[in-house]
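User: Just a sanity check before I run the rest of the batch. Below are the structure tokens for the first item. I only need the designed sequence back.
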């Protein structure tokens, strides 16, 4: 069959388009909710890049270093993530492509041989301490709480010491040196966080999606338009 020049050019363009790998940025290091959302949404069709914070990843989007950014939008009960909304106010050329709803579950992770009486500290991001403050007061009232910037930092400390626990999603207990010591420690078990996919263009919300929480045995995906981490 004879192929015309225009058809050959169209086929070549289609091949190039299908081979394109999207560059996606997210705030925080491996182990954070934003990274999990980006990985689940784009699977193997994107190159994921970590940035120090929300401002940094939005600036990377503005400069063209990435073509999309996945950032936290709001926490439970419609509490907006201030840094995300302030970044969007500074850059009107950035739009919300879609918003993702993710059920949040928190666990206490630590070394498998850690005795409760030996626990000296719990490490987590400030927001996660707020999410399970009642549980901690009831179960570990005398243990020091150490705040860190990224969830991965808390996991590193818990894995590297024999007297330290970390608060994180149960899926992150996959690390060789960590096990889940207590599940569902959040004070609001029904909390759903929102994450936004940002792209460059006019402002509009194009769609919405839903993401399961980590443990496949617990159907935490919440349907409906309601109000990370």
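Assistant: Here's the designed sequence for the first item:
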């Amino acid at each position: 069959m004879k192929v015309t020049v225009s058809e050959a050019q169209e086929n070549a363009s289609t091949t190039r388009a299908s081979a394109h790998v999207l560059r996606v940025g997210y705030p925080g290091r491996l182990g954070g909710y934003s990274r999990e959302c980006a990985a689940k949404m784009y699977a193997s069709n994107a190159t994921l890049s970590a940035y120090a914070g929300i401002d940094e990843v939005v600036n990377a989007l503005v400069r063209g270093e990435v073509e999309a950014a996945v950032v936290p939008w709001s926490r439970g009960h419609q509490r907006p993530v201030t840094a995300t909304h302030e970044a969007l106010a500074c850059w009107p050329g950035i739009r919300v492509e879609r918003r993702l709803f993710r059920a949040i579950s928190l666990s206490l992770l630590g070394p498998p041989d850690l005795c409760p009486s030996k626990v000296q500290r719990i490490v987590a991001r400030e927001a996660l301490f707020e999410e399970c403050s009642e549980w901690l007061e009831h179960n570990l009232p005398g243990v020091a709480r150490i705040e860190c910037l990224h969830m991965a930092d808390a996991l590193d400390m818990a894995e590297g010491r024999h007297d330290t626990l970390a608060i994180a999603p149960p899926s992150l207990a996959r690390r060789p040196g960590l096990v889940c010591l207590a599940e569902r420690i959040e004070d609001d078990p029904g909390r759903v966080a929102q994450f936004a996919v940002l792209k460059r263009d006019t402002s509009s919300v194009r769609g919405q999606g839903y993401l399961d929480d980590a443990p496949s045995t617990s159907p935490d995906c919440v349907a409906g338009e309601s109000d990370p981490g």
